[in-house]
């Protein structure tokens, strides 16, 4: 017999609108699953059952009134959507994964949390993240590590590992996540989910922690393309003071609407080799890539192998900028000694970066974006989409990437595991991870699609076409 968590987020919302399902009943279902399963998955840093019940009761009253008055409700009204613990929610602890901020409670919502409130979603809690979202695993000193529900001995990825573990484990139907170097797409790959890293400026990161580098953005993690697109609609939108603004959709269109569109015949570059020196792609990741390229060809798209020259200049620029970002994180003076070794290493490096070197790193990102836009993907010519592995290997065991004794070696290992993802953070282009492949061990292996700046629509339409051709949402981990 199907249970409530078997329904997609949009199916849940439809039943709430019709009166067949109560937001209170749905919220209690997920709170019970969190109580039963989260200790083994490490999905949440802070649970908020009282707030969730209050919001669910309000959502139910609003749904009853809307039915009585014939008013429409937001597409995800009454649906639980947890928030990653890098974002501020008024009155809820925000640790950013750091013991140094274990007691930090903001008094205002940031723009993403406010948007999710307006959308009528229910917050079950704050999801697990590594300290300040810096590495691509989710381990910290505050909570158990986030584990992929497909094999709890392995990492859920990071830095949105808690969000991915929650959705893949049936503790939430969809989740807010964020991505500064792959942090949505990496856990999507590790947990068998669909994740969207939006274009730079699509979702506001303000008002308190604007990312002036343009690397980071919020985005959705979900089991289906349609759920992710609807959650992106809920979060998207510029706000005063934003340093970047992405071009909007045509009037009247939504990202959810792109799911029903034919993407047309696309020219797709297939990038099988990492654009960094000395990086080997695991055979399972190469197999996922080859299968996807064959499927795209069968769907009528033109695929062509692309070889980018191995070049570590962007990696060096990313490292400088990432280190400055780490150094900017708001750590109380007495909290420095509580930080993880990798965080202390990056903050020390960041303090050594001069203003001119920081600016040079940002300029390198803009030059790369221009080169891609004009050389590889000009509108009406060149490639429409770039296909690559999401990561270079299957989900690693918990603790395998972490190296407290040598954080410099750890940072290098993280780069070898994720050689494809940060490219799109540097350029600001949208990118998605699509869960089309599981290996012989039953572990999910994602593939990544990158699009032109501002063109999430094509990626969503193409992803929906792939999902229709080879569905994945029926796959459930043992914990389900």
Description:
- It is built from 15 helices and eleven strands.
- By secondary structure, the protein is an alpha/beta fold.
- The strands form two sheets. Strands 4-6-5-10-11-9-7-8 form an eight-stranded mixed beta sheet, with helices on both faces.
- Strand 7, helix 9 and strand 8 form a beta-alpha-beta unit.
- The protein is globular, with a radius of gyration of 21 Å.
- 55% of the residues are buried.
Strand and helix layout:
Elements: H1 9-18, H2 23-41, E1 44-47, H3 49-69, E2 83-84, H4 111-118, E3 125-127, H5 161-168, E4 174-179, H6 185-191, E5 194-197, E6 217-222, H7 225-235, H8 255-258, E7 267-271, H9 283-298, E8 302-306, H10 313-328, H11 341-352, H12 355-376, E9 385-389, H13 407-417, H14 422-427, E10 431-438, E11 444-451, H15 456-469
Parallel strand pairs: 2-3, 7-8, 7-9
Antiparallel strand pairs: 1-3, 4-6, 5-6, 5-10, 9-11, 10-11
Uncertain stretches of 5 or more adjacent residues: none
Structural class: alpha/beta
User: Termini distance?
Assistant: 13 Å
The amount of beta strand, in percent, is: 5-15%
What's the total helix number? 15
SSE pattern: HHEHEHEHEHEEHHEHEHHHEHHEEH
- Kindly state the number of beta strands: 11
Rounded radius of gyration (Å): 21 Å
The overall pLDDT average reads 97
State the share of residues found in helices, binned by percent: 25-40%
Strand order of the largest sheet: 4-6-5-10-11-9-7-8
The outline comes out as globular
Largest sheet: 8 strands, mixed
């Amino acid at each position: 017999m199907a249970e409530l968590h078997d329904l997609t987020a949009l199916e849940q919302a439809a039943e709430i609108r019709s009166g067949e399902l109560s937001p209170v009943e749905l919220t209690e279902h997920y709170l019970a699953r969190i109580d039963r399963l989260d200790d083994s998955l490490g999905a949440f840093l802070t649970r908020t059952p009282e707030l969730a019940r209050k919001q669910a009761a309000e959502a139910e009253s609003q749904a009853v009134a809307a039915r009585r008055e014939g008013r429409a409700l937001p597409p995800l009204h009454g649906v639980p959507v947890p928030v990653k613990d890098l974002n501020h929610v008024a009155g809820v602890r925000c640790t950013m994964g750091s013991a140094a901020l274990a007691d930090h409670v903001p008094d205002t919502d940031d723009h993403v949390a406010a948007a999710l409130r307006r959308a009528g979603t229910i917050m079950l809690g704050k999801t697990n993240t590594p300290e300040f979202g810096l590495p691509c695993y989710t381990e910290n000193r505050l909570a158990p590590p986030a584990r992929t529900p497909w094999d709890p001995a392995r990492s859920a990825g990071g830095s949105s590992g808690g969000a991915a573990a929650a959705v893949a484990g049936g503790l939430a139907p969809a989740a807010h996540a964020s991505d500064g170097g792959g942090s949505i797409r990496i856990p999507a790959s590790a947990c068998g989910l669909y994740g969207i890293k939006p274009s730079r400026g699509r979702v506001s990161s303000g008002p308190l922690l604007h990312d002036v580098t343009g690397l980071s953005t919020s985005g959705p993690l979900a089991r289906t393309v349609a759920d992710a697109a609807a959650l992106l609609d809920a979060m998207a939108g510029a706000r005063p003071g934003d340093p970047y603004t992405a071009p909007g959709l045509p009037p009247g269109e939504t990202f959810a609407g792109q799911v029903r569109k034919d993407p047309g015949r696309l020219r797709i570059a297939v990038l099988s080799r990492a654009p960094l020196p000395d990086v080997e792609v695991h055979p399972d990741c190469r197999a996922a890539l080859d299968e996807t390229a064959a499927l795209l060809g069968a769907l009528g798209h033109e695929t062509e192998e692309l070889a980018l020259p191995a070049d570590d200049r962007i990696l060096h620029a990313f490292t400088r900028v990432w280190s400055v970002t780490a150094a900017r994180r708001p750590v109380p003076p007495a909290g420095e000694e509580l930080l993880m070794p990798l965080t202390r290493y990056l903050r020390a490096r960041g303090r050594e970066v001069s203003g001119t070197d920081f600016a040079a790193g940002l300029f390198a990102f803009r030059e790369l974006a221009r080169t891609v836009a004009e050389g590889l993907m000009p509108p009406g010519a060149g490639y429409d989409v770039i296909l690559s592995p999401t990561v270079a290997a299957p989900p690693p065991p918990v603790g395998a990437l972490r190296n407290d004794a040598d954080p410099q070696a750890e940072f290098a290992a993280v780069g070898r595991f994720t050689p494809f993802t940060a490219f799109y953070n540097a350029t600001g282009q949208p990118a998605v991870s699509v869960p089309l492949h599981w290996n012989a061990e039953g572990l999910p292996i994602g593939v990544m699609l990158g699009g032109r700046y501002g063109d999430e629509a094509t990626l969503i339409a193409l992803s929906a076409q792939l999902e229709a051709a080879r569905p994945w949402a029926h796959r459930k981990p043992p914990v389900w």
